[in-house]
Amino acid sequence: MTQQEFEHIVPRLRPRLKDIGRQFFGNEEMAEDIAQETLMRLWMLRERIAPQTDIEPLAVRMAKNLCVSEWRKQKVRQENSLQEALTDHKDIQRDVELKEEVARLKRAVSQLKPAEQRLFRMRHEAEMDIQQISAVTGIGVRSVSAMLSTAKRKLLKILNPKGGLL
User: Fold this and answer.
1) Contact 164, 135 (CB under 8 A)
2) pLDDT digits (tens, 9 = 90+) for 145-164
3) What pTM did the predictor assign?
4) In angstroms, rounded to a whole number, what is the distance separating the alpha carbons of residues 105 and 130?
């Protein structure tokens, strides 16, 4: 098919292709996109189309296939955005739960004796090991270890008064 033949049939095909897109999507913008994409693909195939071929059935089939492909893409995009929204919601929920747990732990730590609080914070917030805590505080290594153990038991009791697993 020559360029002139193609240009001659485009004005006849374009309204039919737009109708297909409009019927499928109910949207003028999508109808125009379908018509343009179909015509572009026909243009790319024009050299392989025999001059006596009735191009309208081919164009109609291409437009319908494009509609189905575009619909599937939209569906996948919608599912992906829904999945992202659910993931975001789960992340937010997880963040809220984590903040609540941190606040709960801080309240529990505040119920410890001042020395136990200091040692607990050195160990878990400053991430110091027992030898470093001993060197900083001047308390023996065994005493630091025993005081931390006592503090942990008290925290477990405060956080879980029923005695079961947290």
Assistant:
1) no
2) 999 999 999 988 888 877 65
3) 0.47
4) 21
Residue in the structure block whose two tokens are 């878990």? 124
User: Are 60 and 20 in contact, with CB atoms under 8 Å apart?
Assistant: yes
How confident is the model at residue 158, as a pLDDT?
87
Cα angle value 71/7/23 (rounded, 5°)? 25
Residue 47 in contact with residue 31, Cβ under 8 Å? Answer: no
How far is Cα 71 from Cα 67, in angstroms, rounded to an integer? 6
Please check whether residue 63 is in contact with residue 38, taking contact to mean a CB–CB distance below 8 angstroms: yes
pLDDT tens, residue by residue, 7-64:
888 899 999 999 999 999 998 999 999 999 999 998 888 888 887 888 899 999 999 9
Long-range contacts of 115-122 (CB under 8 A, 24+ apart): 115/147, 116/147, 116/150, 116/151, 116/154, 117/151, 119/144, 119/147, 119/148, 119/151, 120/148, 120/151, 120/152, 120/155
**Is-contact 133 122, C-beta < 8 A?**
yes
